Amino acid sequence: MLDLAKYQSIGAALKDALEEFSAEVCLIESDREREKDRLTYCEFKTRAHPLAKALQNSGFSANDRAAIIMTNQSKWLISAYAIFYCGGVLVPLDYKLTPDDQWQLLKHSNASVLITEYPIWRQLAASSLRASAVNVKTILITEAPPNADLSGAHRWEESRGAGEPTFLPRRRSDVATIVYSSGTGGRPKGCMMTHENYLEQCVALTSLYPFAPGVRYLSILPTNHAIDFMVGFFGPFTCGAAVVHLRTLRPEYVRDAFPKYKITYVSLVPLVLKNLQKGLQARFDALPPGKRKIFDALVAINKALTKSQPRLALSRRLLKQVHRAFGGELRAIIVGGAFTEPQTLQFFYDLGVPVANGYGLTEAGTAITVNDLKPFRADTVGKPLPGMEVRILNPDADGIGEVSVRSKTVMSGYLNEPELTAETIVDGWLLTGDLGRFDSTGHLQLFGRKKNMIVTEEGKNIYPEDIEAAFESLPVEEFCIFAANYIWPKRSMTGEQLLLVLHLEQGQSLTGELRQDISARNNRLLNYKRVHGIVLFAEDFPRTASLKIKRNILAERLAQQDRANAILPL
Amino acid sequence: MRTIDQTTQEVLTLASTHFQVPANSLAPDDDFFKKLGINSLQALELLSRLENHFGIELPDYEVQGVSDFRTLASRIQSRL
User: Fold this and answer.
1) Which residues are registered as beta bridge partners of A392?
2) Residue A500's beta-bridge partner residues?
3) Is B44 in CB contact (< 8 Å) with chain A?
4) What is A269-449's CATH superfamily?
5) How far are the Cα atoms of A173, A476, A481, A493 from residue A473, in angstroms, in the given order?
6) What is the model's pTM?
7) Model confidence over B12-70: pLDDT tens digits?
8) Which fold has domain A4-8+13-261?
9) In this predicted complex, what is the ipTM?
């Protein structure tokens, strides 16, 4: 691994990595059964440098911003490297957002360059909001068919400048990326992450889960997500490891990739991990009684022998079939993006597949705590990573309070939001809004949220305010959206739901017609953003002098109703 | 060559069989996430079944953001 303490920026570290590991494979790209691409670090460089030169020729320079909206593939990483090489600021955007949301964030980020894929561009180009993002001057699109209507964009594949590009150095304190942790509604939260944030986080994470040449990481979480950016790009590249991309993320192709590419690490969101558990459990349940008995005995032996720490070689021998299905080289499944149920984590650990369970948020630079597996603790989210100071604010009688963090990995602030930044980072401490406590061995346990938001099992952060635009002009007196657990706090991080609170007009009732209107609007939202129930409130919403809803006071009043009776199904 | 109506009907039949819901409970404009009570992964499973049935490949990007049977059927129809 490169000694990252010596480096000032992501670009400088990656530049040296391409030389240091020149002959090693860095990228493999597969589409269904077909392998589309396999690149060494040297070949990666020969593809990235002409792109960097083309960007520079177009006027792109240090501190300029360039957005990427792409599915996981080699051109994502090549483009990101080219942006860093030019000293630019990367704005990685979620390809699953609607085109209108994407334009909104493109405008908010003030990106001058957009790099995207042709199918995504087709939808973006058709959006009426395109005209609002006048800041986007250069658009490069990958994989456009011959004779395709490019609608003012240029082909990525033809964006090749002649001659060597000029490397533009950055300092550790400079902004490296703007990562949107949420906020496609009224107030986008663009986390400004510095080069130092990434360099420090990479050192901390790889000290627990090391990468090296020969190690292969399967990239499934979107690369715009903080986790995949770190463990599916910057981490492996600074250690000479390889990243495997799948262009088709159907479960059957993901399953096949493990043995085919001898995967060492993979990151998953809880939803996918649970699905994997379900599939494995069904296979175990289908075993004939005799075989099942032997299998259960082997799992029990493995469990006993790995109680204090994982013993991969032993587990691979004991539970050969299971490990063969995972390719035989899997060292750990990294799970993140949302809370994972302990029972799921334990299921995999008992099979000899350690799950690196942790806790983090984009604002803190990916991970705050990670299970160090010494021993494995499914009921916690692990211990703070090296360099992380974590404390519990205002603990109650049970020791539970708000988790706060101080570290070199904490973002410099929210883009264009000094007030929000000041509310979130107080005296150098990042207030996470999550409730937790430390147990006697220093492991962090989480017990719900203080803030009005939910995180889905797919790892999506949803803030109620962002959903409210979908219900604008709903024919009621007033409405707003809440996370159910914000109104009725639960000491749980799972099964979180959004609720639509309605104050009906005088004499109005919740008719079938109104329900239909609500359902139709709800269905236009992406499926993970939808509200799950309605709560009626008979009084005026408490508001500030500027007519903003006082959500905390409204939540307190709503909480006077019984939760089970108050929530009406949609 | 199937008509779009035939394709839509086959999509509905396959979804009802795969997720074991009564065929007559599904309509073309239904949101399949909501009506079938499925998550994004289960939707991917359905896509694989549909690919096998129609003998086509549906790239992930083609179905990005699609959540009703009618639009799904039209994406399939364009590849038949």
Assistant:
1) A403
2) A481, A534
3) yes
4) ANL, N-terminal domain (3.40.50.12780)
5) 44, 8, 14, 32
6) 0.87
7) 999 999 999 998 899 999 988 888 888 888 888 889 999 999 999 988 877 877 889 99
8) Rossmann fold (3.40.50)
9) 0.81
